[in-house]
Design a protein that fits this description.
The protein has helices spanning 3-15, 60-63, 68-82, 120-126, 138-141, 150-157, 159-164, 219-235, 257-262, 330-340, 358-363; strands at residues 39-48, 51-52, 58-59, 87-97, 102-108, 114-117, 170-175, 184-188, 199-200, 206-212, 295-297, 313-315, 344-348, 354-356, 367-372, 378-380, 387-393, 398-403, 413-415, 421-424, 427-430, 434-442, 445-454. By secondary structure, it is an alpha/beta fold. The chain folds into 2 domains: 1-101 and 148-365, no CATH class; 366-454, Immunoglobulin-like (Sandwich), CATH 2.60.40. β22 and β23 form a beta hairpin. α1 (3-15) runs parallel beside α3 and α3 runs parallel beside α10.
Length: 455
Amino acid sequence: MKKSHLLVLLIFTLSGVYSCRTGRQYVAERPLLDTITPKILKVLVIEQDPFLKTKEPIRASVFLKQDKDSAVIDLIDDIYFSSHGLVKVELVKKEHLDEFATFHSPITLVNGEKSRTLDEATWLEIMSKGWWGFWEHPIVKDIRPYSYDYEYLLNKFDLVNRRNRGEFDEVWLVNVDPQNSYESMMVGSTAYWINGKELIKEAHNFKIMNVSISRPDVNFECFGHAAENILDRVFTSRYKSYQKNSFTVEDINDLNVWERFLLNHYATPGFASAGNVHFAPNSERDYDWENKTPVESSWIDWLDYPYLTGKTKVSNSDDWVPFKNKQFSSARQHHRWWFSLMPHITGRTKDGFSNNWWDYLYSGDYVTKITPEPSNSKYKRNRLITLRFTLEYQSGKVENKTLQTIASDELNVKIADETIVRIEKGQLKAVKAGSTTIRVYYDNQYAEFQINVSR
């Protein structure tokens, strides 16, 4: 890595603010962040960037005058900035695959042979007129979309075993075109679609993220689509935020918080919030980041989360793309703005969803079942109540929990009759003889406890 790149990365990491001096961007404030421990995302970088032996030799990226290091540094900065410092990327290792991409089906090389991978002569022919337009070459047109061979990559780098040993949390595949890989995909025993087909393996789930060095402006978008798919599952979203006039909103309070976040004028005219990865609040088409048409939007309400009141602001692109330069494209500015609006404080909602959505984005995991453990259900008045239960996660992880104290920002405990049991000084206390139920919610799943209080 170049010294200049290391210096830029250090500045980004220490500042955690917009790295450009030529404009202001609204970013969600940081209430209660001092009580949240930042997560370290251990990333294994695999560079698929072979040497061209007939050209000095040099790497294919150098031949194309593309910068691998900048693409990775920008992503590290985007994640740190947009998560308000709650996710810190640690590059645990950088490894090289000195081969062109391997595909599922054979292609015809310039020498007439059939192969599942390009050779140097064929790649140079494809790129003979420069990077722009390479996809129009007949050879590239013969490569099936998304036909990159992930099995080959897993075996080449022993990724399943290394993930199970805890060597990394996520893989970033940094590559030269043509790659024909997914923008993002998941591998693991309970893997699921995150904008790329899942690959079921006996491994702890992990993401493989595509990092393009020819289109670095789209790399954070890949993370955005992964985020959309993860949060769609977590919140069981009904909202099709990419389809014009797709959802009729009568009252935003009837939506779950993720659906409420996604509102945009294209999909729900008259109701706009933060939008999605392709549509800003006022966009009229995909990637319409610089639209100056004013629209009333509640995106500003998310600056005060969890105190959502429906507050709106008449906005246009000046709010999410306040400036434009070589380093910060319109797309990158929008995505940083969009991610930064996501809830990122302590506590849980009444349905048990975390108030820090980066908990979900970091791991892709969420609770799918809560089981109450057998415990004493009979209590005397003025005694404290302890609840024990087991959380089962989508990944298969199991966690035993004991509920003795309840933080003021935890809204996920519901008492049917608060004259019998109530919360005092952050603890459940039996206060009057009788019977009631207590429900504890996590990610819209709940465990129910029958509580009997004697005199």
